Amino acid sequence: MFGPIASLSQLNRADGSASYKCPATGYSILGAVNAPIELPARRDALKPEEATVEVFVKPGTTTAGVGERYVEGILRSVLGKIVLGREKGFPRRGVVITLAIVGGENVERGDSYLTILPALLHAALLAMISASVPLSMTFSATLLGVTKSGDIVRDPSPTAAKAAVSLHVFAFSSKNHLLLNESEGRFEFDTWELVRERALSICQGVISSDGDVTMDEGTTSASLNGFIRETVEDQVYSDYAYKLDSI
Amino acid sequence: MASTTTPSNPTPPSLSLPPSQFARLQPHAYLLAHLSPPPASNQPSIRANGRATSQFRVTSANAGSLTHTNGSAVVRIGDTAAVCGVRAEILHTKDIASWSVLQASAEQKFDKSNETGVPESQDEEDKGHIQDLNLLVPNLSLSTGCAPGFTPGAPPSALAQSLSHQILSLLHTSRLVKADDLRIWYQPPNLDSEEFHNAGEGMEVDTEESGGPEREIKAFWVLYIDVMIISLAGNPFDAAWASVLAALRDTKLPKAWWDADNETILCSDDVADAQKLSLRGLPVSSSFCSFESDVAAGWRAVVIPDAEEQKQKKGAQQRWILADPDGYEEGLSQERVSVVVDKENGKTVIVKMEKHGGWTVDSDDLRHLVDVSAQRWDEMKRILDQC
Amino acid sequence: MSAPLVLLPSDEVPQDHLPTNSSNPLRLGPGLRILSQPSSKGTNHVLTATQAGLLTTDAKRNTVSILSFPNRRYIPTVNDFVIAQIHHSSVDFFHCMVTPHTAHALLGQLSFEGASKKTRPMLKQGELVYARVQSVGVGAGAEVELTCVNPATGKADGGLGPLTGGMVFDVSTGMAARLIRASSSSAENTDAIEGLVVLSELGKKLESLGGFEIAVGRNGKVWVDCSNAAESAVKVTIAIGRCLQETDQQNLHPHDQKKLVTKILRDMKLVS
After folding, report:
1. Which of B300, B302, B303, B359 is the best substitution to test chain C (most C C-beta atoms within 10 A)?
2. Domain with CATH 3.30.230.70 in chain B
3. Is-above-0.80 flag for pTM?
4. d(C-alpha B242, C-alpha B331), whole Å
5. How much is the ipTM here?
C-alpha cells in the first residue's frame, strides 16, 4: 500500500500552505493558512484575548453546503484547541485556514464526511506548521472501517466505506491524547476499543513496552506522526540547505 | 485640600455580589466553585444549574401537535425546545432523471442477492434509494430570537447548517426509515383476474404470485422534515433529533396507488387507510461537554502531560463531564461528546459517537458515557412512548 | 557542532543542544517558550518548540532560536526595519501598511529627522518609507508604532525616512532576514553571508552602470533604486528584483545564483 504524499509551502502568496494526498482514499487536499490577519467582518466571533480560528472547506466541483459547514465546525474545534492563540501578534486576530478538495470523489449531500476528514486534518496541520502558527502539539488522524465480517480496514476507499458496517476517524496528538473521534454505523463499545487500539498504532507507530515510541527510522516512517515529522524535516532541510551545507 | 476631604480610612466597599452578577462576570470561576466546593463547606459537587454531573434536564415530548403535517412533534429539554413537522410529497419516477439507470443497477443487485440469499440486501437497497434520491430532506432552522444573537433576516447560521447535516447523516447511517414505506407501487393488472386492482389488499397478495407481470415502482414519498428550534438554551442536537424521532414515529402516510387510466397517483382520503412508518430501532442521542478547571490560564504555561501521565494524575480532578449542557455551560467548554445509542433485545448498540475539541476525554470516560447514554435511552423511550 | 536538529511543535529542546556559556542569561528567540513542569521535587523548566523549524544556537550571544519556514507572515517586533506604504494620513499620524490584511501601523507626522510642524514631509497615499518599529504595544488590539528616527540620536540612522524613486519587490520574510544578516556581516566566510552571493554578484556586474541602492524591510519587501543608471534605470531595477525573487522562490545555491545573475542580465541586454 502506498503511504500518503505531502509537501509544504507550495503557494507563494499565502503565509503557509500544504498539499496532502492520500492514495488509498483518493482524496487530495490543498490547504492555505493566513495568520495572523484582521477579521473585520467577524467582530462578533472574535475573542478579546485569543486568536480566532476560521476554517473554510471548498469542494472541488460544487459550492459548499451543509456538509462542509459541519466538517468546518469539527476542524475549527480541533484546530482551535491546539493553536496557541495568545502568542505575540495573535490575540484578536484570525487564523484563516482554507482547504480546497482538489482530487477524489465528490462528497454528495448527506454523504458521510468521515472519509475525507483525516486528509483535511493533515492538510490543515501541515499548512499551519508551514505558516509558523504557534501550536501546542501536533497530531495525526486515520480513517478505519469495520466490514461486515468484522475486519478492520485502514483507509477504505469511498465505495468500501459505503459498504462498511461502521466508520471511525481518530486523531491522536503527538502526546497520545485522543483529540478527535468520529464514529458512525452500528457497533459495540468493545469493537470501538479494538479500532481505537489499531488507530493508535497507525498514528504513533509501534509502542514499546515502556510506553515510549521507538524512534528508529524503520518504525517512525511507518507511523503517521513519523510521516508528518519527515514531511516537515524534508522541507526544513531544503529551505535551509544553504545553512546546512556550510556546516 | 483634596486629601483632607477624602476620609483617610474609608469604610471598605461591600465586595459581595449577588450570584447572578458573579455568574456573568466570572462565569468560569462561578461554575468551578459549584463543582469543587471547598472541602470545609461540606457541600456536594453540583452544577450551577442544580443538576448532578450526569443528570439530564427534564424532558417532555408531545406528538401530533401540528395538524397540517403528516407527522409532528414538540420536544422540550429544559429550556431548549424543538418543533418538528414532517410533510410527505410524491416524487414520480418519471421525474427522476437517472431513474432508469438506477433501476437497472438495482435489479442487478437484487438478482445477485436472490442467488446468495443474504438478508442484508434489503437494507442495502434501502440505503441506496433513500440516499441516492434524497427521499429524506431534513432542514433545521434556529428561529429568530431563540437565543440572543439570532437576528431576523440573517442567513442560516453555520450552527443551523451543521445541525441539518448531522440530522441528515444520522438518518442515513442509522437507516431509521425503511425505503419500502416510501415506495408507491403499481401492479399491472393480471389479464386473468380483472377485478383485482380495485381490491385494497391486492398489491400485497400479488407480490407472491409469480405468473403476473412484474410490479414496478411508480413514485416515492419524499419526507420533508423541518425542525425549528424555538428556544435555544444549549444542546440543540439532542432536542432536534428527539423531535425528528418523535415526529417520524407520529408520521402517517396516506394510502397511494398508481391509477393506470388517469396515469397519475391517487391517494386515499380515508384516515383508516393511512399507514404509520415502520422505523428501525430508536436511536437516542445524548450530548456531553467537558468542563476543565484550568481552561484559561493553566495549560499555556505548563507542560501538557502525556496521555499516560494524565491518566495517573486522575486523583486530582481537573475536569468534569457534564451531561446535557445548558447554554451557560456550553459557553465555558470546548470539548464536546455526543453519543447516539440504540438497544436491540436489551443490548446496547452505538450508532454514532463523536468527540472533539479537547483531549481530556478518553476511552474510559467514553465507556462510562455510553452507559449513561444507555440509561438515557430507557428514559427517552418511556417519554416517547407516552407522547 | 552537532547534527542539525529539526523540532516540531511540542518537542522539547534537548539539554545538550543548549549553549553552555553561562556568563550571560540564555535568550530565547521566536518559536520557543519556557514551560514549567510541576513535579514532586519542585518545579523544573523545559524549553519547548511552538513552531516547526531548525534549532539554531549562538554560543557567543548565548541565544537559542528556531528558524521556521521562510514564507511565514511578518509579525512586528521592536527595532525591526520595515518598508511601509502610506495608506492615508490623519492629523498626527501617517497610517501605513506593513503586511497585508492587518491593522495599519502608525507613523507619527513628526517622527522624521529634523521634522517640525513646518518641515515635516508631506507624504501622499502610496508613498514608501523605510521605518523602524518603535513599539508594538501590549495586550490585545495594540497598535504598532513606527518611527523614522533613532530616538537616541534624533538622526535617521541606516537610511530611515521616505523612499523616493525606485521600486519595491516582495520577497519572503525568510529571504528578507537573510539579506539583512548577510549585509550586516562583514566576515568573508560563507556561513556569515547566509549563502547569498546574488547581491555581491550584481554589484560587481552593475558597477559600470552606476551601481544601485537597496533597502530591505523585515516585512518581506525589498526596495531597489538605481537612478544613476540613467536611461536603463528601469531595466536594471527590474533585473535586480527578478534576481532576488527567483533566488528566493527557487532557493538557489550560490553557484546557481551567479548563473542566474548572468542569465538575467544577458536576457535584459544589460551586460553583454
Report:
1. B303
2. 59-106+120-188+214-279
3. yes
4. 23
5. 0.89
